[in-house]
Amino acid sequence: MNIEDLLREALSDMASEERPPQPGRFLQVNRGRSRHRGLALAAAAAVAVLTVGSTLVVQGLSSRTAAPGVLAGQGSGETRAETRITVTVNEGLRLSSVLKDLSTATGKPLKEFERAAKDGEALGLPAYAKGALEGFASPATYEVSPTSSPEEILAAMVTRFRSVAEDTNLVEGAKRVGRTPLEIMTIASIVQAESHDKRDMPKVARVVYNRLNRTPEMSLQMDSTVLYGLNKFGSRASYEDLTSRSPYNTYARLGLPPGPIGNPGDDAIKAALKPATGPWLFFVETDSKKGITKFTDSESEFFKLVEEFNKNRRTG
């Protein structure tokens, strides 16, 4: 069942009730109702969801779509118009940054968003997310009502993720490559962080898989995971950073980090599910101005690419 079907079912149920349901019930996703229906209601509580191209517009209910009395003036029979807020959640943002941006855009306290983000069950997160919103706050452009609560806004983002997961066949695709859905989202978040051009994403994903699948296993050695574990931002980890005992230090630890390091976009998820075919073990963005990234399976060639990067940086 896709997102449009979920919402049609939810709105149909609402229309058959004797009076408009109380907003609070929409967040109770496991009170005697199916998880899918509860999720649809969470998204529909104060927003209508419209798919527009590759983005999602989450719109506050207007007088055209609202149930009777939801936005109507008391006793006047008139409806009041809403000024909606447009928020663009960029691909690869960490959850901490997403919540700050949402707080700034809506004027609602950051603590309210942080509190809402901790209740994965109410937001409708899939079981494989293990209650953590990081990685599942789907990047898109959202249009929200000023009256929408942080819970409703975040639930709509999770609803959008579920739509992407269905479109990309995430669960079955993960099985095909021998990974769990959470591992796929973790790989996708790394691919998003390490790629400077979406055209390189399938190759970056292949590097991740080649390192994970190598015997003996290679460490991933991704600066992006190290920095995430230390709550630092940037593109390169320092020598001191690489000595950290964080579970996200993929220089010191084998395998994937515990979970996503950001919220990947659709292209990164697709790349994680269908990596390119190739022997590559290394990649270097040799020219940041031109956005050129080169791949190799040779360690000696890798060092040459690093020299090329340093040369371009000095002359840039």
Description:
This protein has helices spanning 3-15, 35-44, 95-106, 110-117, 120-123, 150-167, 170-176, 181-194, 201-213, 223-229, 266-273, 299-315, and strands at residues 47-52, 55-60, 85-89, 140-144, 282-287, 292-296. With 316 residues, it is an alpha+beta fold. It has two domains: 3-167, no CATH class; 170-278, no CATH class. The strands form three sheets. It has a two-stranded antiparallel sheet with strand order 1-2. Strands 3-4 form a two-stranded antiparallel ribbon. A two-stranded antiparallel sheet has the order 5-6. The longest helix is centred in the middle third of the chain and has 18 residues, at 150-167. The radius of gyration is 22 Å and the shape is globular. The model is unreliable at 14-80 (pLDDT under 50).
